[in-house]
């Protein structure tokens, strides 16, 4: 899922980036690390001498300003968020834009206020070099590591003990991994927090519901990496073409519960009288009917 596809409001015209260009087919983690390493290894004959320095609020302010809206300097809007992600090597497909919003505690989709930016940057306190572009690949690394841990449920990386004990930035680390360590101690709780945050972030402020297209896009991004059945649910909803108008908080939560409950890919453990939403009952019927046609059996 691209941020622009979900919101239909992100500008497609980005200003040319002065950042190091790496082929797009390289994985984002590799892109970010190459950017950082090349910046560190630039010869001292370059006009700019790079010095490793600690995070400063002044630096965070300057970075915010470079992406803020021209007509509202206290907000990074959709175009600025996309530009930030592009310059950092953060893919707009997948969950990383949501992880960015989650870590910065954003109140609106594809927008980051100045106060949200400063508290998020303070929490990460990533080490920087004396060039703006060097901070962005480090942010990309932080989001990629969170994506692996929280969304894809991969085993956590080893965090140095000084970070675990004191919550500081270890000299060998590019950013503060205090939050990472907390999430690693309970990956299930961390994912639930992200999942609930995403519903609140994406729904219109005065509404209790997500439109079904947005809900399906978010399920594909957040749940499909762990639960492949979500891909079929998205296909079902697409085929229904408007039969289901939206997803309220109960449906949002029960889709997650459904994924955790249904272990058998053939849905033999699905209880039709289990008070599931009609949408899920219909999906199960659709899937069983499709399986029966492929095997020639009669659906149960």
Automatic annotation (TrEMBL):
Residues 55-288 form the DCUN1 domain. GO terms for cellular component: ubiquitin ligase complex. It comes from the Eukaryota. One of its GO terms (molecular function) is cullin family protein binding. Coiled coil: none annotated. Pfam families: Cullin_binding. One of its GO terms (biological process) is protein neddylation. Neddylation of cullins play an essential role in the regulation of SCF-type complexes activity. This is Defective in cullin neddylation protein. It comes from Boletus edulis BED1. The lineage of its organism: Eukaryota, Fungi, Dikarya, Basidiomycota, Agaricomycotina.
């Amino acid at each position: 899922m691209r941020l622009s596809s979900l919101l239909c409001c992100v500008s497609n015209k980005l200003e040319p980036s002065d950042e190091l260009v790496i082929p797009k087919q390289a994985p984002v983690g590799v892109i970010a690390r190459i950017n950082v390493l090349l910046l560190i290894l630039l010869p001292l004959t370059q006009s700019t001498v790079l010095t490793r320095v600690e995070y400063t609020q002044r630096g965070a302010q300057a970075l915010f300003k470079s992406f803020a809206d021209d007509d509202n300097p206290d907000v990074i809007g959709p175009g600025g968020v996309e530009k930030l992600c592009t310059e950092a090597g953060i893919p707009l497909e997948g969950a990383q834009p949501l992880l960015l919003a989650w870590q910065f505690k954003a109140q609106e989709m594809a927008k980051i206020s100045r106060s949200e930016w400063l508290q998020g940057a303070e929490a990460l306190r990533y080490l920087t070099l004396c060039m703006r572009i060097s901070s962005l690949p480090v942010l990309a690394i932080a989001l990629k590591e969170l994506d692996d841990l929280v969304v894809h449920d991969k085993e956590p990386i080893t965090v140095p003990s000084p970070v675990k004990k004191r919550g500081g930035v270890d000299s060998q680390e590019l950013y503060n991994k205090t939050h990472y360590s907390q999430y690693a101690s309970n990956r299930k709780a961390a994912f639930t927090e992200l999942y609930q945050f995403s519903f609140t972030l994406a729904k219109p402020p005065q509404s209790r519901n997500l439109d079904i297209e947005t809900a399906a896009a978010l399920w594909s991004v957040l749940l499909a990496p762990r639960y492949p059945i979500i891909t079929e649910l998205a296909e079902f909803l697409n085929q229904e073409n408007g039969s289901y108008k939206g997803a309220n908080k109960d449906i949002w939560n029960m889709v997650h519960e459904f994924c955790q409950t249904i272990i058998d890919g053939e849905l033999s453990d699905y209880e039709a009288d289990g008070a599931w939403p009609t949408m899920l009952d219909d999906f199960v019927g659709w899937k069983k009917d499709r399986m029966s046609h492929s095997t020639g059996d009669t659906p149960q």
